[in-house]
Amino acid sequence: MIAKRIAIIGLGATGLSCVNFFRKKDIVVTVFDTRAVPPGKDQLDATTKLISGPLSAQLLCQFDCLVVSPGIAIATPAIDAAIKSGVEVIGDIELFARELKTAPYQHAKLVTITGSNGKSTVTSLLGEMAVDANVNVGVGGNIGVPALDLLSADVALYILELSSFQLETTESLNADISTILNISEDHLDRYPSYQAYIDAKHKIYQQSQSVLINRDDPLTFTEKQPQLSFGFDQQHYGLMVQKNEHYLSLEQQPLLACSALKLSGKHNWMNALAALALGQQVDLPMTSMLATLQTYTGLKHRCEFVKEVQGVRWINDSKATNIGATQAALLGLSDTIQGKVHVILGGDGKGADFSELKSVLQEIKGQIVCFGRDAALIAEQDARTIIVENLDQAISHINQQAEAGDLAILTPACASLDMYKNFMARGDHFIDLVNALTGKI
Length: 441
What we know:
Layout: E1 6-9, H1 12-24, E2 30-33, E3 49-52, H2 57-60, E4 65-68, H3 77-84, E5 88-90, H4 92-100, E6 109-114, H5 119-132, E7 137-141, H6 147-150, E8 157-161, H7 164-168, E9 177-180, H8 194-202, E10 211-214, E11 227-230, E12 237-242, E13 245-250, E14 253-257, H9 266-281, H10 286-293, E15 304-309, E16 312-316, H11 323-330, E17 341-345, H12 358-362, E18 368-370, H13 375-379, E19 386-387, H14 391-401, E20 407-410, H15 423-435
Parallel strand pairs: 1-2, 1-4, 2-3, 4-5, 6-8, 6-9, 7-8, 9-10, 10-11, 16-20, 17-18, 17-20, 18-19
Antiparallel strand pairs: 12-13, 13-14, 15-16
């Protein structure tokens, strides 16, 4: 499995987990990073050589195996040259998959989760369900802890969130069940086409014993069997209505009233159904899963309740870094409150087609405010849109217009890097600004 000459491309948390993985096996590796002082540099020991600066095809071609961090495209010229010269190129998830087949890890179950939106929520929710069931669980991958750092003989169940970038360099997963929750345009700045992005997601099905599809999203469909499904209708894991109340259901039998969920929004009903279906496949008890759904409050920066100011609820959905996430957050939201919904959008759209927002913006009865690099492109989708210079002005404007019973949500549909370090920094700034509100000024 392990080549003689190994290079880690990209340090940071993932790269460092790879270094530590090989260190435990007494294998010395070389690390390449284009940054002069990459995160994790201070944690390298004296035996690990770090080469900083632009990647050199000549140097990379001298190795037997490159372990490439997901943030670095394998289409990078130096890496592509290494591939063409016969160098094996994999990622940390492939290392994890190969290791999981060996003692003492081979008896653990594995769930793998991807999708354009909702994968972090479903991953963490399923992890909480396992904890409630007293299952020793390892949760990570693209969220939280790198997969290699989760490896332990004590873990009975691994739950991994996987990005399309991670799946590009992964071939050997043998998951008990995998899912693509949904697919919408994202990362078009990295892929040559939308289809290439879709194909990367579908690699997860090829490496799984069973699959879970979304009945409402044909892009998640596959011929792979056996398969489970979830969706808005009453089939399999779905929804049903009794006495004007929506219920999560299984085979047209009610499981839990949607009003009992701490998670808000119709998209989170789908996340709950997906978690239930995945949990069923790895033998988590239904009682534990339903109990968790009644206490789980969601992820930070994902439809996160911040504060109510003079009857106006402010919601932080900064993690909505693509159009699909914003569509999910806003779809039907006006139907769940008595007042109006006000929305803040904007940032770096990564080349996405904002016309897909038109229909969901038509549902908005309140203010539509945009800021950031692509504010003008978003504003073209609805004539009511107001463009402001920054998040401060956006919040101030809505604060002046909103009334008791209204809801205001930051759901950008864009990445944050034009104005912030990351979406967390954008969300934290939103929280600080909202917490400073005392009402109309």
